[in-house]
Specification:
The structure is a homodimer. By secondary structure, chain A is an alpha+beta fold. In chain A, 35% of the residues lie in helices and 23% in strands.
């Protein structure tokens, strides 16, 4: 055996380390890990949480009650002034949570057992635990929370609306929330909406807020809303949790009709993963401390409805932009369908197709997968009447790739962060637009290991 | 500067390499890359491609025609003896391929234009290009292929059944296939079925084959089948491409009825990604060179149907076991539904849920997501009547986690490669079983970059 040249050995080893590091980096990048679970979604609106207006008659508090998470707020409380009109829309899941059932019963009640709108109202929401599929104990937890909030805020229990979001099937440690209600009642703040938006987050990477102002002869009507949700998002409802506050004067019945109509055009048109939550809830509270919307066919009412729609659509889009693992925001527009229902069927088939969504993640202008999704949707479609566009680029028409189609131009387009896929079925006047995101390694990372 | 101790330095560097290697392994495994795109699916049947029996009256040839792939066979040809009965089942996609439309027209024709079963028949399949959404050129390519195969094999063109699988929307270079037909006709081999199974693969990681033998008083009936498919798999049809050959004597009409019935219980009960191909085709060819199945209510016919079902189910399961990126094979059994349709709705909602499928990939006994999927299915369900089992482990019943439920036992169970999720809805006698796989980084890897 010759004498070892340790210097040469060390040099060789250093070289080996360099190669190993490069290989690891390359492999990780091809494994998609570079895109995985960013601190904040790359699609988050610039500038962070918006500056939302104070809505007269609404106050917020939030605390870290340790429902599941440590070191973060996880409960939000909103007190609504006497006279507030409350409307809602909820998941249609057959296994919806105790809180959803409770809210639906309260909003459906013509004559609330304990006090009407004149008694004020409250919204109490926790993250970390969905209190869904928790048997009779689930309803008991909701009852306990409503009673405690009613007592702490001096509002009727029949006007306390709760929601819980997080893991399904685990008992909700509601006593941790009850124990903090006194403290929350003592720290209510009309400007506390940003804290409320943060407290209801689960896998969200950013807090979601939106606002609008409607000019009326009697001064401005203000609207401010918050939302949470980034997975288990699909019609109906696509919401997860949405709370919108306005100082408008409007009666509960017309507000409810407006909310139902607008939900169908906004939150029921977004999909992240085709999965529907057991807890999705949307509540709109109108405190009546600002101007009246007046005659529902009049200009102020129509302007109010348009502004409310804008806030709802903005929040819905933010939920998609925070889709688990999302790197692309995609608008799917379907026109020319035999009817609107067919158009929606096609739009959702495209927006929910794992193959379309992975192609988008790979920035691949794979329009053949769009053809596949149209075909499987069940809607009436004829190959030779169909046309497909990526952005303004005509990709296919007359049953064939468009004569001027340039794969290079389409590939270039797919590199954008915001994409539009348009399909015209050439059959009738049915139309529908839905919004979705891509399907990436980030989604798998988040969901293959959410509970642990 | 002191003198460098190169020996110590080398030792330290060696240690560093060891650590780096461990870290790389860990990081890669958490990034899922260890699971990504394996050479062969971990769920592939042990022992490789099975030894399939020769079916009298069927011969195979396969070549590398360079349709899209280099260095592999991509075209298979089967010649079926005169008198062969042919039955089929096909995708219901509204954008189905030219080859599918052509096969359907030929099988529906009561009196084929050119020759009936007595003229023999042929099956010609290429991988690499689906010839779907290729306009009039698509049908012209099919016509050219059928004419060329008819001429090369001296069978009627009206009895040539083609299929194409691969990328959608690209023109099929059918002349490359036509150019090799003479050579293929000259190398037909009754034992060539394994080569045929390999030639029709696309993203498949293993060739799929299954067989059965049915004892009759007149000797054995033999059945041998091949299949391809690993993505874009969902009812109806879930098949991608399936070719089954038997020497049984059976008329086309009863064979067609049997195939339709069995397809519904087998290939229409599997799903990988909820996406349905434009090209899915199943053909069963009975050459009549073996025993007759006889009276359809008699024992031989019933035994034949059971054996054919077994081959179809085996092939269907192999398609799921080769699901793109799959690491788990999952049977979803739904019982106690109001009717069979509701049961199927629930089973497919579970089997297609991205959240259920990622939880399985993460070996997480997240039964809350099963509750969610039941809820969103649209089927009648009552929370308090529902029960859920993972394998034999009772997870939830009476609207609540089962009293004896052990998370540790369930987590242990989830580590298995073959899993069963059972849901009893407690409402009626409706039942349905479907098969699926998990959703992993491997699926994203394969599909975010399939075309390039």
């Amino acid at each position: 055996m010759g004498k070892t040249d340790w210097k040469a050995e060390a040099k060789a080893l250093k070289k080996k380390i360099g190669k190993l590091k490069t290989r690891t980096k390359k492999t990780l990048s091809s494994a998609g890990s570079a895109k995985s679970a960013p601190a904040v979604s790359p699609l988050a609106p610039a500038g962070g949480f918006p500056d939302l207006p104070v809505i007269a008659g609404v106050e917020f508090a939030s605390v870290a009650a340790g429902v599941r998470y440590a070191d973060r707020t996880d409960v939000m409380l909103a007190r609504l002034a006497p006279g507030t009109a409350v409307a809602g829309a909820f998941t249609r899941s057959a296994t919806r949570s105790a809180a959803v059932l409770d809210c639906q019963a309260k909003l459906a009640a013509k004559a609330p057992k304990e006090g009407g709108a004149e008694g004020g109202a409250a919204i109490l929401v926790n993250s970390g635990n969905a209190n869904a599929f928790t048997g009779r104990a689930g309803q008991e937890a909701v009852d306990a929370l409503c009673a405690a909030a009613a007592s702490a805020l001096a509002v009727p229990a029949g006007r306390v609306f709760t929601a819980s979001t997080g893991v399904i099937g685990e008992p909700l440690p509601h006593e941790r929330i009850v124990a903090r209600l006194g403290e929350m009642a003592g720290t209510l703040d009309p400007a506390g909406i940003a804290g409320a938006a943060r407290a209801i987050m689960t896998t969200d990477t950013f807090a979601k807020g939106a606002s609008a102002e409607v000019a009326t002869p009697d001064g401005p009507i203000r609207i401010a809303g918050i939302a949470k949700g980034s997975g288990m998002i699909a019609p109906d409802m696509a919401t997860m949790l949405v709370y919108i506050f306005t100082d408008a004067q409007i009666a509960p019945a017309p507000l409810q009709k407006m909310v139902a109509r607008l939900t169908d055009e906004t939150f029921n048109c977004i999909t992240v993963d085709s999965d529907t939550s057991t807890s999705d809830s949307l509540i709109v509270a109108a405190t009546g401390r600002g101007p009246a919307v007046g005659d529902l066919r009049g200009r102020p009412a129509r302007a109010f409805e348009a502004a409310l729609r804008g806030v709802m659509l903005d929040l819905a889009h933010q939920v998609v932009r925070d889709g688990e693992g999302a790197t692309k925001f995609v608008e799917v527009r379907v026109t020319g369908a035999a009817d609107d229902a067919d158009a929606r069927r096609v739009a959702l088939a495209i927006a929910n197709s794992p193959l379309v969504k992975t192609a988008i993640a790979g920035e691949d202008a794979n329009w053949g997968r769009v053809v596949m999704a149209v075909g499987k949707s069940g809607a009436r479609a004829e190959r030779d009447l169909l046309s497909i566009r990526f952005g303004d680029i005509l990709v296919a028409e007359q049953g064939w790739r468009a004569p001027d189609y340039s794969e290079a131009a389409a590939s270039d387009y797919m590199k954008r962060q915001d994409l539009a896929i348009s399909v015209d079925l050439g059959l009738g006047k049915g139309a529908s637009t839905v919004w979705t995101c891509d399907l990436t390694h980030g989604y798998i990372d988040i969901n293959a290991d959410y509970r642990s």
